[in-house]
Design a protein that fits this description.
Layout: H1 30-70, H2 75-78, E1 88-95, E2 103-106, E3 112-123, E4 129-138, E5 141-144, E6 150-153, E7 158-161, E8 167-171, E9 180-186, E10 189-194, E11 199-203, E12 209-213, E13 234-236, E14 242-246, E15 251-255, E16 261-265, E17 283-286, E18 292-295, E19 302-305, E20 311-316, E21 328-332, E22 338-342, E23 347-353
Antiparallel strand pairs: 1-23, 2-3, 3-4, 5-6, 6-7, 7-8, 9-10, 10-11, 11-12, 13-14, 14-15, 15-16, 17-18, 18-19, 19-20, 21-22, 22-23
């Protein structure tokens, strides 16, 4: 597990107030003109540098997306999983009835929440419809707190509903550029992953933004999050710290609420214990014992990692998921169960360990 992050002297004045006879004196007003020219030149250079930086960044991000689409893998080989590593089994398959579902969460009672177009549906652990919450817009992410309140994220804002499904509050818009991909609640904070701005907003329970996490900060030796594609997940640990998927670095990073990078784990590679593609893990969740469940895009597989980042087992391989799905979302259920949503389908898959609760 990778751990903590790692003018010359001037010449003496020899003119003694005299003007060298070989130097032409400056004409009146010429000095001011020269200064103006110098200032304008510097300003032009600064603007040019900024334009070059922005264009380079855009080209780099576009290149990363192109790389993801064009990178050639031995897909047949990557999809092979040693059966001995698959230590989980599918315990249930629920039908949400929502073909546009993009997000799932589990409430304190073990009910599964599924978010789609204009609707959040609550299902029992056996798949019975418990209740619906009508919303306006496409649900992008879901979370529940210890009291059962439901946090529904849309593209640029979050709405909060009580355990009874009644509206409680709205967290104001994060701006036109915002693109929320994940939300997590814990430790007295609300963490909102914003792919559009490449940061995580930390809010208090009233929705007031306290600070942001993941922004480039050279003074703190932090490079910022590298996110080539719109996948950015966040989860809260029992100690109140936040785990964030830095997908372009193929790792999960742990931050203090104030935004200090504590530690990280994960690396790129073709072996089963590593992450493939341009940017993974696309989604993840934390289990009660501090271990991780990750979901990858490109090669659809769900894996279980120990708290120190070592691979423990494979939850589900490619053959567990329909071919027409549009990515995976994962959530931690009661008794160590793992709930998986194959986006673009109505199915919700529930997995449990063959070896007992993790």
């Amino acid at each position: 597990m990778s751990q903590d992050r790692h003018e010359g002297a001037g010449m003496p004045d020899t003119n003694d107030g005299m003007t060298d006879k070989n130097v032409c004196p400056t004409a009146p007003g010429q000095g001011l003109a020269n200064k103006i020219v110098a200032v304008v030149t510097i300003a032009v250079l600064v603007v040019a540098a900024a334009i070059i930086y922005i264009k380079t960044k855009r080209v780099t991000e576009a290149g990363n997306r192109d790389l993801e689409r064009s990178t050639q893998y031995d897909m047949a080989e990557l999809q092979k999983v040693d059966p001995a590593l698959i230590k989980w089994r599918e315990a249930a398959r629920l039908d949400s009835g929502l073909p546009s579902a993009r997000a799932i969460a589990v409430d304190p009672s073990g009910n599964v929440l599924v978010g789609g177009e204009n609707l959040v549906r609550r299902l029992s652990g056996t798949g019975q419809r418990v209740a619906d919450i009508t919303v306006t817009g496409a649900v992008q992410a879901l979370a529940c707190d210890a009291d059962g309140a439901v946090y529904v994220a849309f593209r640029e804002h979050v709405e909060v509903f009580g355990a009874d499904g009644k509206p409680k509050a709205t967290i104001a818009s994060l701006g036109d550029k915002a693109q929320i991909t994940s939300i997590a609640v814990g430790g007295g904070n609300i963490y909102i992953a914003d792919f559009g701005n490449r940061i995580v907003h930390r809010c208090d329970m009233s929705g007031k933004v306290l600070n942001v996490i993941g922004k480039e900060d050279r003074k703190r030796n932090m490079a910022g999050l590298n996110l080539p594609s719109p996948h950015m997940d966040v989860a809260v640990a029992t100690d109140g710290t936040a785990w964030i998927a830095n997908t372009g670095q193929w790792r999960l990073e742990n931050y203090s609420p104030e935004g200090d990078l504590n530690r990280y784990w994960g690396e790129s590679g073709a072996t089963i214990d590593k992450f493939v593609g341009c940017c993974n893990p696309a989604d993840f969740c934390l289990l009660a014992d501090g271990s991780f469940v990750t979901a990858e895009k490109g090669v659809a597989r769900v894996k279980h990692y120990l708290p120190d980042g070592r691979l423990a087992s494979v939850v589900a391989a490619v053959e567990s998921f329909p071919k027409n799905m549009q990515g995976l979302d994962v959530a931690a259920g009661p008794n160590g169960r793992v709930v998986v949503l194959p986006r673009g389908t109505t199915a919700v898959l529930v997995f449990e360990s063959r070896e007992g609760t993790p």
